[in-house]
Amino acid sequence: MIPDAYELKRILRTHRARFWSSDLLEAAEFAPIYFFDDQAAFDSDTVDQAMTRVFSGPIRLPHPSVIFELREQRSAPSGLVVCACQKGDIVEAVFLMRRRAPRGWTDCLVRVWLHPDGMAEIEGNPTEQEDQTVRGHGEVAAGIVWRALTILGAAPDIRDQKISLAKRARMAREGVRGWVWHQVAIDPARLRAVLPPQGGSHASPRWHLRRGHWRQLTDGRRVFVRQCEVGDPTRGGVVKDYTVEIPGHE
After folding, report:
1. Which residues pair with 70 in a beta bridge?
2. pTM for the complete prediction?
C-alpha cells in the first residue's frame, strides 16, 4: 500500500500553483512521509491520554518539513494528509484529503499555525464560507499533528518501506524523488508507558479535554467527534487543549 502523498508529490511538480497556500506546499515535494494506516489506533483514547507529553515542551517535527498521512478504514477511504513545516517554535501546516469517491484531491482545506502554548490558529480556504466547516477541518489538521508527534515520541516501531522498481518509472519521469517512506506501527503498550501513574489499573484518569477527531463507525459512516470533557476532576486536571482562532471572526 503506497501512501497517497506520493501522488500528491507528483501533482505538485506541475500543478502546485493551482493550490491555495501553494507556498507551504513547495516543501512538501521533498518532505519525508510518515504513514499511519491504523486509524482506530491513531484516534484511540491511549493516544489522547499520552498527548500531555507533547504539550510539556517545544513543538518539534522529526524533520524541517514532513508529511503526515492517515489512511481511513472504510470501503471508500480518504487519505488525510497534513503537510507541516517547522518555523522556529511554531509548526505551520496545511490539510488536504485524497477522496476515493468521488475520486480526486481536495484543495488545501485549511492552514494552521500550532504554537508552543497549545494554541492553534486556523485560516480556511477562501472558497469555504461556513465557519463550522473551517473550524472542524482545523481541529482535524491540528489533531493529526498532535497525535502523530505523540506517537513518534513514544518510540514506535517505524519501518522504512520502499516503492518497487516497477512502480518508480512513471513517478521518476514526472520528477518525484525519494522512494522510502516511514510506516509507523502504533504500539498501545509503549504509549501507556509514557502516561503518568494513575494509582492503580482501574483508577479513573485525571480530568482532561479530549480533542476532536474523525471516527469511522461500524456501519461505514464517517463522523466528526467533537471535543469533550472526560475523566475525574477530583484527581486533578490536565490542560492540554488548543485554542482555535479564525482570523477575522469573533
Report:
1. 36, 80
2. 0.77
Helix, strand, coil shares, percent, the chain, to 5: 30, 30, 40
How far is C-alpha 131 from the geometric centre of its chain's CA atoms? 21
Per-residue pLDDT tens over the stretch 210-235: 555 555 555 555 555 555 555 544 44
In a domain, 235, yes or no: yes
In-domain check, residue 250 = no
Write the pLDDT tens digit of every residue in 33-61: 999 998 889 988 888 888 766 666 678 99
Distance CA 20, CA 85 (A): 16
C-alpha cell at 167: 512502480
Residue 154 has a CB neighbour count (10 Å cut-off) of: 21
179 backbone dihedrals φ, ψ, rounded to 5°: -100, 10
Q: What domain range includes position 60?
A: 5-245
